[in-house]
Structures are given as C-alpha cells and as structure tokens.
Amino acid sequence: MDLKRIAKDTAKTLTSYLTYQAVRVVMGQLKETDVPRSYWFNEFATRDKLQDGEAFIAALMQEQADLALRVMTVRQHLAEEVTEFLPEMVTTGIQQANIEHRKRHLERMTQMSSEELKGKADAGDRDSQSE
Amino acid sequence: MDLKRIAKDTAKTLTSYLTYQAVRVVMGQLKETDVPRSYWFNEFATRDKLQDGEAFIAALMQEQADLALRVMTVRQHLAEEVTEFLPEMVTTGIQQANIEHRKRHLERMTQMSSEELKGKADAGDRDSQSE
Q: Of A88, B16, B27, B131, which sees the most CB atoms within 10 A?
C-alpha cells in the first residue's frame, strides 16, 4: 500500500473538486449579475474539462482571464476554510458507515440463520410426524 | 457561499475517492493471491458503481461479503493515515498553482504588450522613413 502516492493522488482529486465547487460559486454570482455571461460560462465549464482543475483554469485564462482569476481566488478561500474540517469529517464518517454496513450484514446473516434453523425445525417436525 | 454544504459535499466525494483507492489496494492483493477472483472483482467494480462509495460497498456486501469487509478496513486505514496531511497539501498546492497561473498570464500579457509596442515602433519607423 503506497500511502505517499495515495495521499498525492487524493490531494490532486480534492484540488480539482474544490476548483469545481469554486466554478459553481462563480457561476451562481454570474447568474445574478450577468446572465449572458453565465450562459457562456456554463457551456465552457463542461464536466469533462473540470476533471483536471489546473487544465481547466489554464484554458479559462486564455478565454476570459477575469473569470479564471475569480475561480482561483474562490478555490483558495475554499481550501483555507473547508479542508481543515475534512480529516475529522471523513474519518468519523467512514467509521460510522462501516459500522452501519457491518450491522446490516450481521442482521442479514442472523435472519438467514434463523430461517435456516426454522427450516430445519420444520423438517424435524415432519420427520417426527412421519415416525 | 454555503461553506457548510460545500464541506459536506467535499467530505462525501473524498470518502468515495478513498473507497475507490481501497478497492485498488484490495484488487492489487487479489491479483497476487487469487487471479480468477481479481477478474471477477475487476468486472464488478465499474467506474460507474464506484461513484457512490456507500452504494458500492452495500452491493459488494451482498455478492462477496469478505471483499466488502476488506475494502471497508482498508478505506478506514487510508482515512486515518492520509487525510491529516490533506489540508496542508491542498492549501499549499492551490496557492502555488494559482501563483503559477497568474505568472503565466502576466508573461503572456507582457509579451502581447511588448509585441504591440514593437508593432507601433515599427510603424513609427516606417512613418519617419516615409517623411
């Protein structure tokens, strides 16, 4: 398990995700202040392009530099305000989700066993009746 | 800017991403210990299913519970080992990437201005020659 590589890949994914969230924030602002431009931005910011945050910003910089600068400012703000809470949120969230999955699995196993037991008991009844 | 909602959505995305990384770890282990099963797992774990980590684990639990339990253990381990480094990595990474984008933008602007100036200077030369 290459933890260093996983940490690096995860940071990259997280950076692209925060860039996507920053695009949504700027899009929301444009919708209230400059509707035609928000249409343009909406067409430009396809899901495909947003997969790589840096490539997206580089491309936007060539087309509408002020929008790129706004997205960059917002994503930096998001990184500063949001990321510090993530380790706790994600670790606790995964622990609780894991408990929930294990619980449901146990319930299903127990239900199956009791049905199996019931099946055997019924078969036993039939055996004793036939004796 | 709804920071609370953004933090929650980001934590969910991060959880699904760590689940995907845990699947890759378990897949790597299977490839070394049980090749036929690694094929099965590879077919089961499609990109589409992995979009939602919890739904993926619930589905896997129904098919091959021990694999689901392994993925759950690995993703908890990853959350504990990796997430604490993310705030620093992502915040610093975004700051540096932003500086880089701004620098390249300025260089391009400066280059354009100097070409414009050169263009004007050449035009001026021609003007003075024609006088």
A: B16
Q: Give CB contacts under 8 A, 24+ apart, made by A120-127.
A: none
| Domains in chain B: boundaries | 1-84, 85-131
What's the CA gap between B78 and B74, in Å, rounded?
6
B124 touches A: beta carbon within 8 Å: no
Query: pLDDT of B66-113, one tens digit each?
Result: 999 999 999 999 999 999 999 999 999 999 999 999 999 999 988 877
Identify the closest residue of chain B to A74 by CA–CA distance: B1
Contact in structure between B94 and B100 (CB atoms under 8 Å): no
Residue with tokens 């199996």: A116
* Mean pLDDT across B22-40: 96
What is the Cα A80 distance to its own chain's centre?
Answer: 19
Distances (CA, A) of B72 to A13, B9, B37, B41, B51: 20, 20, 18, 15, 16
Distance of alpha carbon A112 from alpha carbon A119, whole angstroms: 10
Just give the CATH number of B1-84: 1.10.1200.210
Closest CA to B26 of B15, B8, B38, B36: B38
DSSP alpha helices (H): ranges in chain B? 3-33, 35-44, 53-63, 65-82, 86-130
> Which of B3, B13, B61 lies at the smallest CB-CB distance from A81?
B3
